[in-house]
Amino acid sequence: ATVSPQTTGPTPTGNVNFTFYSGSGSQACEAQSIDAGTVALDGAGIAHPSDARGPLASGSYAFRASYLGDEHYEGSESDCEPFTVTSDPSTKLTKHASSDTVASGGSVTYTYTEENDGNVPLTNPHVVDDKCSPVVYSSGDTNPNGILDVGETWTFTCTLNNITSDTTNIAIGHGTDPNGHDVTWNEELCEYGDYD
């Protein structure tokens, strides 16, 4: 959704306040607001509500936009605008080993990268490996807010010691979507040993 000018004069400038409400239909804006934010009009005089706040959990919502005016135009307020958010949670895990060949009794360090390639933030991001633990967070939480935000990629590591046979391990990247569901991705890696 966007807010754009209905005018034949100069392109409007300034800011638009967006107020968000939970609920469906045009009556939703009569309830208590759940959030608000201010967005500057772009070069075409358009403001995008999604720039006013972060991602919402799936559900029914509405917003009201209030244009604050500029030297050419008076301020104005929009009707209540209902919209629906469809959740598409997803996480992608990749895994790399520090070596493809390990002498008997040696060790290997696994590096895991978990990317949020969905459209909602994921809480409690972590990796579980069936052969190596603990898998520990290394980097990537750029905010830092403890949440695997949309587009963020976190790095985890784990070292497996005293390897004496070929090892195939399966790692699973986890995260919890805003509706409380576990979102996962499996990644398998086979390690070959040199035991002479």
Write the layout of secondary structure elements.
Elements: E1 15-22, E2 33-40, E3 59-67, E4 76-77, E5 81-85, E6 92-97, E7 101-103, E8 106-115, E9 122-129, E10 136-139, E11 147-148, E12 153-163, E13 167-176, E14 182-194
Parallel strand pairs: 7-14
Antiparallel strand pairs: 1-2, 1-3, 3-4, 3-5, 6-8, 8-12, 9-11, 9-13, 10-12, 13-14
Structure commentary:
With 196 residues, the chain is mainly beta. The chain contains no helices and 14 strands. Strands 1, 2, 3, 4 and 5 form a 5-stranded antiparallel beta sheet that branches. Strand 3 and strand 4 form a beta hairpin. It is elongated and about 75 Å long.
Calculate the mean pLDDT score and round it: 86
Query: Rg from C-alpha positions?
Result: 24 Å
- The helicity comes to under 10%
List low-confidence stretches. 190-196
Ends distance = 65 Å
Give the SSE string. Answer: EEEEEEEEEEEEEE
- Report the strand count: 14
Structure at a glance:
Helices cover 0% and strands 51% of the residues. The chain has no helices and 14 strands.
Q: Key terms for this structure?
A:
mainly beta; five-stranded mixed β-sheet; 0% helix; 196 residues
